[in-house]
Amino acid sequence: MRIESSSLQFTSSHQAQSRYQRNEQLHVSLPDRSTGHMTELSYSSQKSVETAQLMTYNELRSQAGNPALAVKADRLSAQVEAANERNQTAANDASAGISHSAEDGDILVLSAEDRLRISLIQSLIRNLTGKDIEFSIIDLRLPKQSTVEAQPVQPTQPVTATIQPLEVPVQASLDYQVSESFYQQEQTAFQATGQVTSTDGKQIQIDISVNMSRELLQHREFSLQLGGALKDPLVISFDGKAAELSQERFEFDLTLDGQQELIPKLAGNAAFLALDRNGDAHINDGSELFGATTGDGFAELAEHDDDGNGWIDENDAIFEHLQLWLKPGEGNSQQLISLKDAGLGAIYLGNADTPFTLNGSLGEERLGVIRSSGIYLSEQGKAGLIQQVDLSV
């Protein structure tokens, strides 16, 4: 082909977008050293950087700066660990305490700080004299005041001191959650129109176009938990109210470490969503709940959506095997009921973040945190709540 003449017009367009978002949540429970009451501290921070240019994750993250709550979390984590060490020391001292016969006078109870001072004094004397000196706490007595005249000493029977069970201090805890998302989008369009004439007089009409586009979405999460760690199974409520927790606890291996943790009982009309994997008619540990091992019960449940319609319903093989664990921790036997017998028709897999702290009646102990919420439908078409609840262990 030989071209004699041409008249062409090119048009093109380009659009780009880059976005970085970071959300931080920090929740701390610390005991007041003077009163022993728990202080709840909650912080949140959001940062977003968006540009109409192509930029990488590292470039945008650098513009956003360091996580705002990271330094605070690091500082408070040291306080949480120190508080729990003090509590553990106090508990160890109490469990190793020596009972003495009761005489006129109360034995002075030494604090952990006093015991540390005595230990330092012992070490100092040992270094100066080369001799070990033992201090007897038995000699530290507070005499009772009495207006009764002294009586002749009579033979007495040994008096057995009754040791009352000590209340274990509530454990300090820290929960730091960071989520990052990076989005990059680029779109380019090209079009060529016109006419070309060849030397043999042939005219060729030109009209060609192409559209190119791409998108990238990345999501990253980081969490730090100290003290009373949180594990989050799915909880279904039957009365339309949000999940509630009781201050009473029961033994259950939620974390799959072979140890029985003390977890809060469910309050109100609610149940754990469960799957009896080994068919022994018993929920044995956290592997038979949803979310206790991965931290995302909705995602675990979504793996069983056979037809991909966004619901767990009778079209999915798992539906007939799902059960509700009613009143966990009540009695020796477990109350398990199928979804069909409970009147549940389908569970929606979509959910929204709904962070909400569940404290004890006096607000001093964090029992758990509601992380996210979704819905289910009853056989009668009524909507109910299903929530991912982090339980303190």
From TrEMBL:
Residues 1-20 have a biased composition (Polar residues). It comes from the Bacteria. Residues 1-22 are annotated as: Disordered. This is Calx-beta domain-containing protein. It comes from Nitrincola iocasae.
